[in-house]
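Entry, Tuesday afternoon. Goal for today is a structural model of the target with adenosine-5'-triphosphate bound, before we commit to ordering more compound. Inputs were pasted exactly as handed over by J.K., no edits. I checked the ligand SMILES twice against the vendor sheet because last time a stereocentre got dropped in transcription.
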Amino acid sequence: MHYPPQTDATSFYGMLTVSEKMLEFFELVRRVARTDAPALIRGQTGTGKELVASAIQQLSQRADKPFEVLNCATLTRDLLESRLFGHKKGSFTGAIRDQEGLFARADGGTIFLDEIAEVPLDLQAKLLRVLEERTYTPVGGTESVKVDIRLISATHVSLREAVNQGRFREDLMYRIRVVPLFLPPLNERAGDIELLTWHFVERFSRESGRDITGIEGPAMRAILEYPWPGNVRELRNVVRRALIIGSGPTIQLKDLTPELRGETVPGDTEQEAPALTERQLEYQRLVAALQESGGKKQEAAALLGISRTTLWRKLREHGIAQP
Ligand SMILES: Nc1ncnc2c1ncn2[C@@H]1O[C@H](COP(=O)(O)OP(=O)(O)OP(=O)(O)O)[C@@H](O)[C@H]1O
């Protein structure tokens, strides 16, 4: 039987749970936070990149200023441009009013751009201009706007490789990775698996109405031996599920997912955490376009580059409520 650790010396400003091995990494995070330099966080999905970005923001001089987050992989090119820089009324069919972008909203604060490698080349040029000249022009605008932001970006792929493949500008790469931070996969972070398991047990005990006193040997062994392709996010979900479906004061092997129990899951042979499916991506794009247009279908369709009829059909297919 394994029992919760007695010490509580592992919290990083109460924001993240970290092991001894990761303390060095978080010491670097603390130093980075004191500067205003652009930071690039590299790590697989679910390793905690967004959490680290938000820790940097909260420990920085910009802590009480806005913190805006955007995943660049889930938006079409036009929508991404409009999201980042805003657009002027009449700049495209359906743009029936001026719309502020992320840079305007985050002025004075911090922007976190996840999956930065997915930004199309022409928009990379616009990003570079923001970093070099601290100005940008909204879509359809004629005047440039001044902006003061700190950029934190993240990627799960190598930007150097993206540069070699001609998909990413080298000058932008140097600009955004002034301070590179590498978050290792969970299975390379000795001590973190057990520590984070207890962290999530404590965190989700209340919602499941259980008082967990221990984790049984076989269950802990399975947790420690599993490769965790989905990293901390997957661990969090596994612990949460175990607390919901199990009963009694301990976590047992049978409460864990089939993958952890070494059972093959039909139709799931992927080693990597599954990426978003095309359908999930389409859903996210639809929702993002509707948010961007304030629910106006014509504007949302224009942002997505599809007709209104196609938009209606897609909304119906995805069961998105029609206001
Ligand atoms: N050290 C940690 N302590 C507590 N919770 C953590 C820690 N690291 C990650 N998490 C949790 O794991 C989940 C995934 O973290 P996060 O979203 O930051 O990962 P990510 O690397 O940005 O993922 P993606 O690349 O898929 O966007 C979140 O619920 C986060 O709260």
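The domain at 18-184 is CATH 3.40.50.300 (Rossmann fold).
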